Each structure stands twice: as C-alpha cells, then as structure tokens.
Amino acid sequence: MTDLAAVDDARETSLSRDLAAITNAFDLGELTEPPQYLADGLMNRNWRIGTTRGRFAVKQIIDVPLEAARRNLGTLSALAADGIPVCTPLVSGSGDTVAEVEDHGYCVIEWVDGEHVRGSDLPLDHVSDLGERLGLIHRALAANAPASVPAVPPSAEVASVAKALEAADRYLATVAALDSPSAFDRSVAEAMEQRKQLLGKYGDLYPKGDVPVGPYGWTHGDFQYRNILWQGGQVAAVLDWDRLRVRPYAEEVARTAQVQFGVEGRFDLERVSAFVGGYRRVIDLPVEDLADGVRRLWWKRMTDFWQLSFHYKRGDHGFDDLFLDDEALLHWWTDRLDEVRAAMTG
C-alpha cells in the first residue's frame, strides 16, 4: 500500500465513522452508494454518496472555522436567486447548514454533474465567459453581502526583501541538515538559491504601500478550475465558498488569471487577456487598479514559500508539484513583467 493509499483509507475511515450521524442530521435516507472520496479538493475533504433521497456531495470542513463556514453557506441561497450557479447547502433538522460530529464539521449539497476543465484547455470564448462570470459574482456579492463592507480598504502586507531572504536561507538550512535529501529537497535548494538571486536583482520593484488601489468588496477567494463545474459549454456550478471575504477586486482578477492560465511554467497570455476582457464587460476596473493588483501578486509570489511550509512543517507533500510549477512560472513572469502586465490590464 502506498502512502497516498494510506491517506485515502484514513479519509474513508473518517467519513465511515461519521456517516450515520451525517445522514441522520440532514435526513438523507438510506445509503445506496458507498462514499467515494473525491481527490480534487486540496484543502478540505470531499466525498460523493448516494442515498434514497438522491446523490450528494459531503464536505468535511477543515480550512476555515465552522462559524465562518456557516456564514459563507448562508450566502449561497441569495446568490442562487441572483442567477449565480451555486449549489445551495442542505439544512439539518435543527436548522443548521453544518453538522458537527464530535470534532468534525460537515456540510452537504446536492450533487451536480459536470467536469473540471483547466483554464488552459478552455476555448477562448469560454475563457471570456469565465471572466464575465467572475464579474457577475462580484456584483451579486455586493448586492447580497454576508456582512457589511468595511469603510476602510483592507490592507495587504508587503513582505520585505530581508524577510524573504531569511525564509529562503531557513529552507536552505533545512535541506542541508537532511541526512538523505530527496530529489524534491535538492530542487528546493536550487530554487532557494535562484530566488535569492531574483530578490537581489528585482527587490526594488516591490509594491509601494500596504493598501491596494481600486474598488474592493466580497470575493469568492479561490475561483480556480477545481471549484468550477462545466456542462455543455456553460458553467454549471461554482463550488467551495470557504474563502469568501473582502478583498480588492483586482487582487481576485489577477490571482484567478494566474491559477487558471499560468500553467507548465508560463502564462497563456492570450487567455489571460480574454479572461480580463470578459471581467471588464461587467466591472470596468481601471488599468491602474489592475496593474497594482498584478504587481502585488507578483511580489507575493516572489516572497512567498507557503508550499514549503506544508512540506517541511506539516509533513504534507500534496503541494510539492505546485511549488515546482509556480517556481518556474515566477521566473518566466519576472522575465516578462511588461508583457504580463499588458495582458492583465487589457
């Protein structure tokens, strides 16, 4: 049995322990299909089950506090009424969207058929539609906000060059202390040396100020392909609203463009441009706002090491490939700052 299989077995066992309580809480009826673990989720754990009431997706909520999950789930019915393709949560017999079973929290939604399509595999017209969809989500969230929007824009810490260099040196020391470094460890050491060179060369291009420019409001927070279901050339459902919070709109536009169209170590600039153009058909963000969002995202990638934190501090290797891909993209992006900015600002 591989380590991955062991992890999957542990997850299956975890749901098996709690399954009866979940089905009772949401009155799902008798089980007709055993839980099938869905590997697409990176942060939470998800399963598909079949019961006498139908087919459902069950999510174990791990990545956010349960009260935040309740707030976010409570927003979805209003979004659905506003035309956003979301899966509204089931409500338990006690009127709760989250069932707490011992130390775990779960929500349940009706199953929606569809497929997850990587942004780089979408036709250009669908890419443009995806950008428009994000704009419609922002507009709908403004009309159906889960809470008031602060009068003061949210700040965004700009990491210093010194802090980033210290982090790179810590990971170099971590790898150097290993008795038998793996191929990944050796790749990390090489990446950290290269990152230090980038910081030395481009450190003066950091964003100025901790307050991003431009409009802000409630945003989805993770509008990437794993959270979007397509069916018949249309978005059938937008999933996983765990990271719903107030952000600059330009931040979410830039981040979405990166996670959707920054693949295999480079940006698909044609698709980036089509996506941003679709968004601006709904919310016409000024060029300077988008440019600020793009620069801040680039600097965050330059100074961020979150995948390595998962690997070395938590023993979670699920993001190793993403680290290597993002590192390649960072170099490609840094060599083409003006080209990427032009594509992301329309």
Write a short abstract of this structure.
The chain is an alpha+beta fold and about 350 residues long. About 50% of the residues lie in helices and about 15% in strands. The chain folds into 2 domains: about 5-110, 2-Layer Sandwich (Phosphorylase Kinase, domain 1), CATH 3.30.200; about 120-155 and about 205-345, Aminoglycoside phosphotransferase (APH), C-terminal lobe (Aminoglycoside 3'-phosphotransferase, Chain: A, domain 2, Alpha-Beta Complex), CATH 3.90.1200.10.
Explain what you see.
The protein is α+β, with helices and mostly antiparallel strands and 346 residues long. The chain folds into 2 domains: 3-110, Phosphorylase Kinase, domain 1 (2-Layer Sandwich), CATH 3.30.200; 119-157 and 204-345, Aminoglycoside 3'-phosphotransferase, Chain: A, domain 2. It is 49% helix and 15% strand. The chain contains 11 helices and 11 strands. It has helices at 3-25, 66-81, 124-143, 161-176, 183-202, 249-261, 269-280, 287-303, 306-313, 320-334, 337-345, and strands at residues 31-38, 45-51, 54-60, 99-101, 104-110, 216-219, 228-231, 234-238, 245-248, 262-263, 266-267. It has a 5-stranded antiparallel beta sheet with strand order 1-2-3-5-4, covered by helices on one side. Strands 6-9 form a two-stranded antiparallel sheet. A hairpin with a 2-residue loop joins strand 4 and strand 5. The protein is globular.
